[in-house]
Amino acid sequence: MKIYNWQFAPNCRRVRMFMLEKQLDLPALEEVIGDGFRLRPAYVDKWPHAMVPMLETDEGVRIGEAMAICRYLEDVYPEPPLMGATAVEKGLVEMWERRAYDEGLIGCAEVFRNTHPAFVDRGLPGSLEPVPQIPDLVARGHGRVRRFFQKFEQQLAHSHFVAGDRFSVADITTLCVSDFAKFNQIDIPTDCPAFARWYAEVTIRPSAQASR
Amino acid sequence: MKIYNWQFAPNCRRVRMFMLEKQLDLPALEEVIGDGFRLRPAYVDKWPHAMVPMLETDEGVRIGEAMAICRYLEDVYPEPPLMGATAVEKGLVEMWERRAYDEGLIGCAEVFRNTHPAFVDRGLPGSLEPVPQIPDLVARGHGRVRRFFQKFEQQLAHSHFVAGDRFSVADITTLCVSDFAKFNQIDIPTDCPAFARWYAEVTIRPSAQASR
Known about the structure:
The structure is a homodimer. The first copy, chain A, has helices at 10-21, 41-46, 66-76, 87-113, 136-156, 169-183, 193-202, 206-210; strands at 2-5, 28-31, 54-56, 62-64. In chain A, strands 2-1-3-4 form a 4-stranded mixed β-sheet, covered by helices on one side. By secondary structure, chain A is an alpha+beta fold. Helices cover 50% and strands 7% of the residues of chain A. In chain A, strand 1, helix 1 and strand 2 form a beta-alpha-beta unit. Chain A is globular and about 45 Å long. Chain A has 2 domains: 2-76, Glutaredoxin, CATH 3.40.30.10; 87-210, Glutathione S-transferase Yfyf (Class Pi), Chain A, domain 2 (Up-down Bundle), CATH 1.20.1050. In chain A, helix 1 packs antiparallel against helix 6 (169-183), helix 4 runs antiparallel to helix 5 (136-156) and helix 4 packs parallel to helix 6 (169-183).
């Protein structure tokens, strides 16, 4: 098994942290980012989706998308379950994971990709054509991240972990969002004490530290 | 079981079509859209995520997000499997489903929400504060949908269904995208014959017709 990786990318960290929570050794990680934070041409030739991470099995099957890779790993290595054990848990984990992604991670990505000079023609991942930055998306991204913190604060005020009593992949994505927000100078809002309590607890997990 | 529904919304259709493919009767559908295509206040009070669809179980558990609802249903009603039967299938179905969502459905939503007069202050779902339309997103959305068609054309040129030999939830999302694109005056490009072959076959499935 091999993973095509960009160490900095939150999407790649989601997969690394997932594997570490499963007590798996990380597989071979091939760094595919070259000059100017661009994907190396040889990787794009191999994987025209032009995104990371991508997992290649020993049989040569290629799976892209962080959560699709985690889904594959959850089936091969079911313990501990990180995507829910019962039908209701599976539904709630997926709901919170997707909320963290759509509001949190995409919100941060809107801020990052539309301001960073290295991404001036790369407003979206996965495109081989130029995608211009849209300055108005920076404010919209900030609003999106604010809503993410507010909604998750309400949940974490009465739930130990993001999707319930058990640590799950929803916590992994939420942590990766929190650290990506911090990189973009967005701190956990001061009116989100339950979120801060959760963050302090989750960020010292060995998987969180080792996946950086 | 009850589903809070907006009959027009592609995200709600994904769930209805999923249930019909499972040979399930549709549960009670409560329409929650009121004047001006806005969510009714009573629904937003009940569900501050302020999005559809939402499933409420007989025990009162509430699950939002189309794919989270499908995940719950897949576990309760495993046959026929629509999210993959083996680890590799599960990974590939999730990969293609997420690609259809991120590039196709969000691309169409960017076109729709940033042009329709009823959405002038609702550029994103799930926000109770105004989110202004961003005109530059219309062109970006069109580019995203174009890439969606191109990438799926390459896949469907050698794959009977979107994620392999078996019909899956990835086909459901892709069909909902195709019809949402058509609503936005975006037809299947003429240089995508494999996509057109796939569409002609999938759109006459009973689940596709009955979920409209």
